[in-house]
Write a structure and sequence with these properties.
Blueprint lengths: L3 E8 L5 E3 H14 L2 E14 L2 E16 L3 E17 L4 E19 L1
Parallel strand pairs: 1-6
Antiparallel strand pairs: 1-2, 3-4, 4-5, 5-6
């Protein structure tokens, strides 16, 4: 969460905009319920002009939760994202996130 500015505006794939505090709550909730997970991303482009940088990337995430020790649910999220970075007096911080495209799939299984 340290890369995000306290003034963050995060536009989800459905168009809803959340702030830094809501993003932090969402991430904490996901991490506390997660049994395992992984993420990768590929930067498609990075354009820097003055104190601002615009990054486009693709991200693949999967995470899994367990229930009753034998049931699991696994989610896969594939998204394309635009991030705006701004240089502050101390460091570069993400001030805007726009999820351009997102596909989520999930499945249940037994251990």
């Amino acid at each position: 969460m340290e890369v995000f500015s306290p003034e963050l505006q995060y536009r989800q794939a459905d168009g809803k905009v959340i702030d830094f505090a809501q993003l932090r709550r969402d991430v904490v909730r996901q991490i506390t319920t997660m049994h395992s997970g992984d993420t990768t991303f590929i930067r498609e482009s990075l354009e820097c002009v003055g104190d601002q940088a615009t990054e486009l990337y693709r991200q693949d995430v999967w995470y899994e939760v367990k229930a009753f020790l034998i049931i699991r649910r696994r989610w896969k999220v594939a998204r394309r994202v635009r991030r705006i970075w701004r240089k502050t007096s101390q460091q570069w911080r993400v001030t805007e996130v726009d999820v351009l495209d997102e596909q989520i799939t999930s499945r249940w299984g037994l251990f």
